[in-house]
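User: I'm curious whether this sequence folds into something compact or stays loose and floppy. Could you predict its structure so I can see for myself?
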Amino acid sequence: MSNEEPYSSEQVTCFVGLLKNELPEHRDNRGKRHPLAFVIAAFVLATLVGRQTLSSIHRFMRNRADWLHD
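Assistant: Here's the prediction. I'll summarize afterward.
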């Protein structure tokens, strides 16, 4: 994978913003580390760039956490 990000910051911000506004948060606060919108957006972006296994998706999320967060 190249160092170039597959999506612009503006595209990610718009997508996460839409999720924040439209996605209800029903999870219990215990053990919750990240907002649901972040988890969903990161999962979708990871799968769009070809990550298929849970460990690979987790690595994508961990390696790009700063880029994916607000």
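Summary: DSSP finds four helices and no strands in the chain. The chain has one domain: 9-24+32-68.
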